[in-house]
Write a structure and sequence with these properties.
The protein has 430 residues and is mainly alpha-helical. It contains 17 helices and 6 strands. The strands form 2 sheets. A 3-stranded antiparallel sheet has the order 1-2-3, with no helix packed on it. A 3-stranded antiparallel sheet has the order 4-5-6. The structure holds carboxymethyl coenzyme *A. Carboxymethyl coenzyme *A is lined by residues 231, 234, 265-267, 269, 293, 301-308, 358, 360, 363-365.
Length: 430
């Protein structure tokens, strides 16, 4: 915080308004507009493009330079040297763990991977063809009906237990939502396995045979979780904070985050990328789709391109692209037709003035969809996997808010509806 001030002059108001300006450790200064309400004025910022909704110490993004830091550490360094659970520890507690702290953390997560046995029957209430994200919204929200001993948000121990439960159980529930959709038995977690390996075991294993998860694919899966772990105040994280600001329990808040993530402009984009590649179908049709993406009168957008914050290469996309190359080489996939379309689209977007002028680079979801498809993950599970990885980010932000001082989130509006008018009786209308 600093002594800087911004002075606001408003037409029709004699006095000038002085607003405090705060500086963070990195990033733009923020103007505290709290004093405006007493002058009967609000700020107007649809889409929160220039609004800092909170103070946070967790993640920093410089969209212009393509920088993403978790607790100060660059994402590419974490992706290369760390793993998902270590990054979870970092996001939750602010520092990288010592070897002993890491071991304790990992074993605590492992002790929470099973879900209450009655949750298996809860699944039977869903249609088999339900979208797994619909199932996840319901089942994760329902955890609050199963784990009453971690709902007291004023109790630090309850908050910690809820955090462990959510991180540990999300892969189990995600895999269950898939197994349910294909009519196969649910797999119990195997706590001898690593986090990502265990997820692949629960997704693709069956009770009749021993699991055999490829270490290369498990590493790629771990990287996908890690690269999605947190991303500052995005739509789903802001949703979790807003839901949490009313005092709602953590399971309900994370379910709200899952719902917000589902949309195609956010986490649903990875699924939309694959659907788009399938719709294009052949390299010869790419120009037609690129023209549609540029046409103002056509709502079509190139999925997996552009980002609200990044006006440069998404640093996660760089790592994801490398991981995609590793996985495709490991699996010997070189002549996949969808991959050929993806590569050509990437090239066009990096050369075409429309995309260059608007700074529309391929984003993380463009490449994650390609890897997930290669691993054999069905398209409908892509956003679920994003949700598994992002759970720690949601919890870290929720916890940061609840353990500090906060007020219920309550935005205001610019009202443009009718002014007051008198009720008209039914027979006098029309
Ligand atoms: N294809 C074609 N044109 C686009 C695209 C696209 N994917 N994205 C943005 N534009 C154009 C847009 O039409 C506008 O052009 P103009 O200035 O001529 O009107 C300009 O670029 C700015 O777009 P915007 O809608 O103001 O940008 P935004 O910050 O509101 O939206 C976005 C960001 C991610 C929603 C958008 O780029 C988009 O819809 N991308 C496709 C969906 C996608 O891949 N989403 C995943 C984001 S990364 C994962 C995550 O963090 O959730």
């Amino acid at each position: 915080m600093s002594d800087k001030k911004a002075t606001l002059k408003v037409d029709g108001l004699d006095e000038t308004i002085e607003l405090p300006v705060y500086s963070g450790t990195l990033g733009p200064d923020v103007i505290d507009v709290g004093a405006l309400t007493s002058r009967d004025m609000f700020t107007y910022d649809p889409g929160f493009v220039s609004t800092a909704a909170c103070e946070s110490k967790i993640t920093y993004i410089d969209g212009g330079k393509g920088i993403l830091l978790h607790r100060g550490y660059p994402i590419d360094q974490l992706a290369e040297h760390s793993d998902y659970l270590e990054t979870c520890y970092l996001l939750l507690y602010g520092e990288l763990p010592t070897a002993e702290q890491k071991e304790t953390f990992v074993s605590t997560v492992k002790r929470h991977t099973m879900v209450h046995e009655q949750i298996r029957t809860f699944f039977n209430g869903f249609r088999r063809d339900a979208h797994p994200m619909a199932v996840m919204c319901g089942v994760v929200g329902a955890l609050s009906a199963f784990y009453h001993d971690s709902l007291d948000i004023s109790d630090e121990h309850h908050r910690q237990v809820a955090a462990f439960r959510l991180i540990a159980k999300m892969p189990t529930l995600a895999a269950m939502s898939y197994k349910f959709s294909i009519g196969q038995p649910f797999m119990y977690p195997d706590n001898n396995m690593g986090y990502a390996e265990n997820f692949l075991h629960m997704m693709f294993g069956n009770p009749c045979e021993p699991s055999n998860v490829s270490p290369v694919l498990a590493r790629a899966m771990d990287r996908i979780f890690l690269l999605h772990a947190d991303h500052e105040q995005n739509a789903s994280t802001s949703t979790v904070r807003l839901a949490g600001s009313s005092g709602a329990n953590p399971f309900a808040c994370i379910a709200a985050g899952i719902a917000a993530l589902w949309g195609p402009s956010h986490g649903g984009a990875n699924e939309a990328v694959l659907e788009m590649l399938e719709e294009i179908g052949d390299v010869s049709r790419i120009d037609e789709f690129v023209s549609r993406a540029k046409d103002k009168d056509d709502p079509f957008r190139l999925m997996g391109f552009g980002h609200r914050v990044y006006k440069n290469f998404d640093p996660r996309a760089k790592v994801m692209k490398e991981a995609a190359d590793d996985v495709l080489a490991e699996l010997g996939i070189e002549n996949d037709p969808l991959l050929a379309i993806a590569k050509r689209l990437e090239q066009i977007a990096l050369e075409d003035p429309y995309f260059i002028e608007r700074k529309l680079y391929p984003n993380v979801d463009f490449y994650s969809g390609i890897i997930l498809k290669a691993i054999g993950i069905p398209t409908s599970m892509f956003t679920v996997i994003f949700a598994v990885g992002r759970t720690v980010g949601w919890i870290a932000h929720w916890h940061e808010m609840i353990s500090g001082s906060y007020r219920i989130g309550r935005p205001r509006q610019l009202y443009t509806g009718h002014t007051q008018r008198d009720f008209v009786a039914l027979e006098k209308r029309g």
